[in-house]
Each structure stands twice: as C-alpha cells, then as structure tokens.
C-alpha cells in the first residue's frame, strides 16, 4: 500500500500485514495493519510510531515516497510494543532525529528491548504541548492502555487523535477509513480488539475516556495504530468504548465448554435451552471449534458466562484450562458465572471452574451441575434448570 494523504500535511505511512493470524494468543483471522503517521508542521516534521520489524524495509520505502527521511525532525513513540517499535532502531539510524519523544516508562521499556541504545530521547511525564509550527502536539499519557508506558498524541489544529492501540482493530484492508468498509465487520473487529486487549484495564480506559472529553474537542480523526481510521462514526465508537469500559452488559449469555466424549456437550445444550426458555440470547461455544479470542469477544456484552469441562487425568480438559487462563487475565468482572461438567470417577477437578471464574471477578452461582459418565435424563433436566437459574438471575439485573 502506498502512503495515503489524510489532510494537507498529514500522511498515513503504515503497512498492511495481510498474513498475520496470531497476535499473542488473539486469533487475527483477517490480518492487521501497523499504522504510522507523518505530520508536517511549519517548523518541524514528526513521525508517529513505526511498524513490526519484519516490515522495516517496506515501511522505509513508504516513508521515502513522502519525504526524505533525513528531513524528519522528531519521532514520537506512543507505544513500545514490538509491533510499533520493531522498525525503530533502523528508522532512527536513517532519520537521525533531533528528538525521540516517549514517556519515562517507555524509555525503560525501550532500553529493555534495544540494549545499549544511544537515542536522543526526551521523556513526557504528563499531558503537555509541543509546538511544531502552526500545529501543536498534545501528549496525553494513557497509563495501562494497554501497557504502563503508553500515550496518545492529539493535534488540535487538525482535530486528530493519534491514539496508539485504542479504538483499533486487527483487520487488513486496502481501505483506510471507517466509512469505506462494512460496518458490521468493523464493529465486530473493534469489539474483538477491546475484548482481547483492553477488557482487563477497563477502569483505566474509563479514566482515559473522561480525560479525552476535557483534553480534546471537535475530534475529526481517531488515528488508530491498527486497522481503519475513524473519521465518520466517531460518536459511535466512543459510545461503544464507554459501554465496554463501564462493563455494561445485556440480555445475553455465553455457554462455553470442552467435551471429551460428548457428555459435557449434551449438558451445554440443555443449559442453553434453559437460558432460551428465560428469553436470554445465547452463544454456545465448543472450544474445539471456537477460538478463545472469539469467545472472549462474545463475552464482552454478555451478562452471564457458563463454563463446562470433562475431567481428564484428575484435571479439566487442557483446552478449557487454556480458555480460563486467558479469560482470567481479561477480568470480565461482574458477570454471573456458573459451572458444569462430566466426570468418570472423581469430580474434584471441576471445582477449578468456579474458582477461576471467581478469580476473574465474576459472581459465581452455588451448586454447579456435574454428571457422572453420560448424563441421564434427570441430569439434563437439572442442567436445563441451571440455565433457567442463570437466566432469571440475569433478568433480575436488567
Ligand atoms: Fe499494537 Fe500493544 O501493540
């Protein structure tokens, strides 16, 4: 992809990664982009972020189509994760910038990533303005979004927020703006990004969204580091982020399970029927079929999560353990949780289901449903009743 001119003096100079399929455990089935931006002021020219190391040559090629790299004065590194800084050492060698701006925490991270560097780093510790001639860059630290060192950069004269990972989506497209693509897919990918990257730091996100209201006005562009730039439906994505950050959920439950010989699967279907009987919208996810990162996306707007497993070798199924570890890190707090499963000669292993949901700050119902060997008609009736119990609990909250 060639660079894209956004306004008279601002370009997208990123790269599209059509082939990415995994981002530290998050399935990126539609690839991603690593966005970087070049902003020309009257006095200084600034490059915001770089790309993953594998794409360094492509990135430099893109940059050269807009500017002689040596004419770039400053580099701003909003986020130190390797998908944005992998190319930074080579780019700094080429650009020889006067200054490289980042937070103090980011300097620590960068020095941990790239040993022995000698870059002209200038640290940003609080919200503050930098004049580049006719344009201002307001640095807005965004601690824990989603690393402790992150920040965003706001350019009031352009109404642009260069927002690092915030508002992003892992989606490789030839289009660059939100209004050029299918809205259903755009919002699914934005929700998937929030659920898998930011859900665990929703309190910090809420603080940032409040700060955004005081530090910025007339936002015209949300210039994300992945996916489509928001220029049309900015109110829509801000509303969604408010909802997700506040963990506002609805009349929806997710039944997620792993099954060895089909017994836990039968129980899942009975629980789903009980939920449906109570008028709840349900997503039933067999972990052999549905990737953990899609299940977490379904949980984002769900008020209840019911988790099941078979017992294997005195433990739960590895695929369920994988999911619970992932979910615990993303803290789906406040949702109703319930457990179920099947076992042969010892059900003790299944208590980890409820324990892990409690550790993930969920409100776990007593009396999980466990069936010995293949569930009987009575076992399935009890599962149906568990679904109804979860459904009733959910409706009482709405
Ligand atoms: Fe896009 Fe947190 O890296």
Give an overview in words:
The protein has 398 residues and is of the alpha/beta class. The protein has two domains: 4-245, Metallo-beta-lactamase, Chain A; 254-393, Flavodoxin domain (Rossmann fold), CATH 3.40.50. It has helices spanning 56-64, 82-85, 88-95, 104-113, 183-198, 202-215, 234-245, 263-277, 292-300, 318-330, 351-359, 377-397, and strands at residues 4-7, 10-12, 15-17, 22-23, 26-27, 32-34, 37-40, 45-48, 74-76, 99-103, 121-124, 128-131, 136-141, 151-155, 160-162, 221-223, 250-257, 281-286, 302-312, 315-316, 336-343, 363-364, 369-372. A hairpin with a 2-residue loop joins strand 1 (4-7) and strand 2. The longest helix is centred in the last third of the chain and has 21 residues, at 377-397. It is elongated, with a radius of gyration of 24 Å. The relative contact order is 0.10. The structure holds MU-OXO-diiron. MU-OXO-diiron is lined by residues 79, 81, 83-84, 146, 165, 225-226.
Main sheet strand line-up = 1-2-7-8-9-10-11
| CATH class (first level) name of the largest domain | Alpha Beta
What's the mean pLDDT score? 97
Report the radius of gyration as a whole number of Å: 24 Å
CATH architecture call of the largest domain: 4-Layer Sandwich
Question: Which stretches of 5+ consecutive residues score pLDDT under 50?
Answer: none
**Beta-strand residue fraction:** 15-25%
What structural class should be given to the helix and strand makeup?
alpha/beta
CATH topology title of the largest domain: Metallo-beta-lactamase, Chain A
- Report how far apart the termini are: 47 Å
The CATH fourth-level homologous superfamily of the largest domain: Ribonuclease Z/Hydroxyacylglutathione hydrolase-like
The domain tally reads 2
- State the major sheet: 7 strands, mixed
Net shape: elongated
């Amino acid at each position: 992809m060639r660079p894209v001119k956004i306004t008279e003096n601002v370009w997208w100079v990123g790269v599209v990664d059509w082939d990415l399929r995994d981002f530290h455990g998050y399935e990126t089935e539609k690839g991603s982009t690593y966005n970087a931006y070049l902003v020309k002021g009257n006095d200084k020219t600034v490059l915001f972020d770089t790309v993953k190391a594998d794409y360094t040559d492509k990135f430099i090629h893109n940059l050269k189509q807009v500017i002689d790299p040596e004419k770039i004065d400053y580099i701003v590194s909003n986020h130190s994760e390797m998908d944005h800084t992998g190319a930074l050492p080579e780019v700094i060698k080429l650009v020889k910038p006067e200054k490289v701006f980042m937070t103090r925490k980011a300097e620590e991270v960068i020095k941990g990533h790239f040993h022995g560097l000698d870059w002209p780093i200038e640290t940003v510790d609080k919200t503050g303005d930098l004049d580049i001639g006719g344009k201002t860059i307001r640095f807005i630290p965004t601690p824990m979004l989603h690393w402790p060192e992150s920040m965003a950069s706001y350019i009031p004269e352009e109404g642009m927020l260069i927002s690092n990972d915030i508002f992003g989506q892992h989606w490789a497209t030839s289009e660059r703006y939100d209004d050029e693509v299918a809205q259903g897919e755009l919002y699914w990918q934005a929700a998937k990004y929030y659920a898998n990257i930011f859900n665990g730091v929703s309190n910090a996100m809420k603080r940032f969204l409040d700060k955004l209201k005081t530090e910025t006005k007339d936002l015209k562009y949300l210039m994300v580091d992945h996916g489509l730039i928001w220029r049309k439906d900015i109110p829509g994505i801000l509303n969604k982020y408010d909802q997700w950050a506040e963990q506002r959920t609805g009349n929806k439950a997710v039944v997620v399970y792993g099954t060895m010989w089909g017994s836990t699967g039968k129980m899942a279907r009975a629980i789903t029927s009980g939920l449906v009987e109570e008028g709840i919208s349900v997503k039933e996810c067999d972990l052999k079929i549905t990737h953990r990162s899609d299940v977490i996306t379904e949980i984002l707007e769900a008020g209840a999560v019911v988790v099941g497993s078979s017992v294997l070798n005195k433990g739960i199924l590895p695929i369920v353990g994988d999911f619970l570890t992932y979910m615990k890190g993303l803290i789906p707090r406040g949702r109703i949780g319930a457990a179920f499963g099947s076992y042969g000669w010892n059900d003790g292993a299944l208590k980890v289901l409820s324990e892990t949901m409690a550790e993930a700050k969920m409100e776990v119902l007593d009396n999980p449903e466990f069936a010995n060997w293949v569930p009987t008609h009575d076992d399935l009736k009890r599962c149906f009743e568990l679904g109804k119990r979860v459904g009733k609990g959910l409706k009482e909250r709405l």
